[in-house]
Fold this protein.
Amino acid sequence: MNIKEEIKRMCREKNAVIMAHYYTDGEIQDIADFVGDSLALAQKAATTEADIIVMCGVHFMGETSKILCPDKKVLVPDLEATCSLAESCPADKFAEFVAQHPDHTVISYVNTTAATKAVTDIVVTSSNARQIVESLPQDTPIIFGPDRNLGGYINSITGRNMLLWDGACHVHEKFSVEKIIELKNQYPEAKVLVHPECKGAVVKLADKVGSTAALLQYSIKDSANVFIVATESGILHEMQKACPEKTFIPAPPSDSTCACNECSYMKLVTMQKLYDCLLNESPEIHVDAEVAEKAILPINRMLEISEKLGL
Ligand code: 13P
Ligand code: SF4
């Protein structure tokens, strides 16, 4: 049996679409019908005509698709593929924090559970966080969760003073400033690409700060031939595919004994699990109806503002 052909055949038979995030393994990105960052995946899910969405990414991405498409079947290859950032913000604790600041507008990064989104006013992704924050009057008091690094970065570029939830991603926290500087000394012409979930000291080294899609576009359009990439290393697959003549160097984590610049959750998605989940139509994402009813409001607000701003 050719597993890739079988996956394609089942997709045709079942009218299923495979969506993948840039952090999944290269072969998963290659078989997907659509590859994108968190914003693009949500936008695509909202408009797909498929009956089944197979979300090759992490759990909150499947949940977002299910909330946007309650009548479709949303499958994920591995339910254990969660997200350390989403887990750093338990909904009950976040709701307590929100209740302590009743006059604040609550902005949550898309990397949250549906239950956390249910106590949120506007969802953002790293593609639109700046513009959505800037669309609110300058004196609006804002709570931003859960990523303290992204929130701190947005505060620094907008002059806001948002209250930050103290969460972080286990991959993006670990990049080493010293090792990126060493690489810069070795390749002085290299451009440094940084995801805003990285710590402020790493962001300061960046030539470009942006979402996965923004970093990819920058690497395609910029005239540099060497790039040091401080985000999950799966993005290098798409960069190298788009620009085979350029050199992409994954920024090293502080601990050189581990593959800490890989998201262990994203890497749980394998070809065999993708095949099994299409065959069995399981595991399926379910979202509690009451939670979904609340969580769709801030997600739709994000999609509406993004559309208005042409993002
Ligand atoms: P993007 O929205 O930039 O794709 O990021 C998603 C993510 O999980 C980053 O760690
Ligand atoms: Fe979550 Fe970090 Fe993995 Fe992104 S890289 S999905 S934020 S754990």
